[in-house]
Amino acid sequence: MQRKFLTNLTLLLFLNLLVKPFWIFGIDRTVQNLVGSGEYGWYSSLLNFTFLFNILLDFGITNFNNKNIAQNNHLLNKHFSGIVIFKFLLALLYIIVTMSVGFIWGYDSRQMFFLLILGFNQILISLILYLRSNISGLLHFKTDSLISVLDRLLMILICSVLLWGGMSGKTFRIEWFVYAQTAAYVITALIAMIIVMKKAAFRRLQWNMAFFALIIKQSYPFAVLVLLMTFYNRIDSVMLERILPDAEGDLQAGIYASAYRLLDAINMIAYLFSVILLPMFAKLIKDKLPLEGLVKLAFTMIFAFAITVSVALCFFTTEFMELLYVKHIADSAAVFRFLILGFIPIATTYIFGTLLTANGNLKWLNIIAFSGMVLNISLNYFLIPTYMAVGSAYASLITQFFTAILQFVMVQRIFRFKPELSYLFSLLAFVCFVILLNWFMKGVDLDWKVSFIISLLAALVASIALRLINFRSMLALLRNN
């Protein structure tokens, strides 16, 4: 299973690193620079608002289905026919609730129109994720890897024509950015649907109320978890836009989005671990096979990566903001300095949270996520009026460490892993070395890009010297020796 994990992770990382960084830094960043932080913050706040009710779109079905199909491949045909109808009913409920709350919230006519389009995009994203959960549940990771980048690849093509094609002769507008995403999601959803219908030997849709009730009963713990995690991950910019005065709220939300973009890009890499690990953990647990080897391999890889990247970026925040943006550099750097350190706990939750999900410990995960949501909203409420976007970054960092530590404690309590003392010492030594290394390189009289690259390479060498990363063992696994 460790060989399967490494093989498919390599492909997934290669494809995503090929496409998604250009989307984030080539397209998304360019759009913000062209339309301005105020206009982009306005869009970002609405986008995050549509995330808040995603629970109604999915109701935990994707995670439940991924785990269920991985353990029971033969149920794909039966469940797919019923779940597709159920997803359409949930989509209708989602759009009604989102538009109603937006109206009560006080959005104007332009905001309501965009809320409708962005809500439709969320419906398409949810459908794509559900379809992918079937593909990865069958352990067809190569097909899933290609689908995972298809929407972004299409968006890059469409937006490139709009940004640099010179076809319209007009200044780029945020509306075009949203419409381009809609077109890409529609095409990707259609292709993914055809693939799953073929694998499921699909013939006709089935209206079955008893089946809908069964799915709700089995997936609602996953639904509650998604809802709680969405709130403490996405509420920041919405609270910034709502708590602060109109123009200041849009601007601070835009500054927060500027800093969050880089975290979002790196987070995509960590997320890929969970995509592959959830069905693998579920399969190992069902077959009662040892887990510790795969958990240790995945955790060590993601922890070394998170420490290396987060600490290096924390020391070079201003330089990166100057490289990416043309305005509000100092403000964005101040926010990013705290946001990026939050990647360390976020990365670990993709291992421990995924393991608890595969093992069915949803009750404890929901308690942890609820605690995180209450903590995050409370911190934002008290910090935003004084510290604005930086206050939201404080809230995010504290919340992410809080939930990650609780998940780690639960994993140890349930699985009782016994890490060797020498392994723990190596992790601690690696963290100390990376911090000292970046502090030293920051003070060296070199171009900052050279210093940054040296820091990354030296951290990689240190991880090998401390035997956290063992390329020889990884290559042996890939070759199946």
Describe the structure.
The protein starts with a helix and ends with a helix. With 481 residues, the chain is an all-alpha fold. Helix 7 (141-164) runs antiparallel to helix 8 (174-199) and helix 9 (209-243) packs parallel to helix 15 (362-387). It contains 19 helices and no strands. The protein has helices spanning 2-35, 37-51, 54-58, 61-71, 76-105, 109-137, 141-164, 174-199, 209-243, 246-286, 292-315, 317-324, 329-339, 343-358, 362-387, 389-415, 421-443, 448-465, 471-478. It is 85% helix and 0% strand.
From the helix content, strand content and strand pairing, which structural class follows? mainly alpha
For the report, how would you describe the main beta sheet? Answer: none
Would you count the extended β strands for me? 0
Amount of helix: over 70%
Name the average pLDDT.
Answer: 85
- The residue ranges in which pLDDT falls below 50 over 5 or more consecutive positions are none
Radius of gyration: 22 Å
Order of helices and strands: HHHHHHHHHHHHHHHHHHH
Number of helices: 19
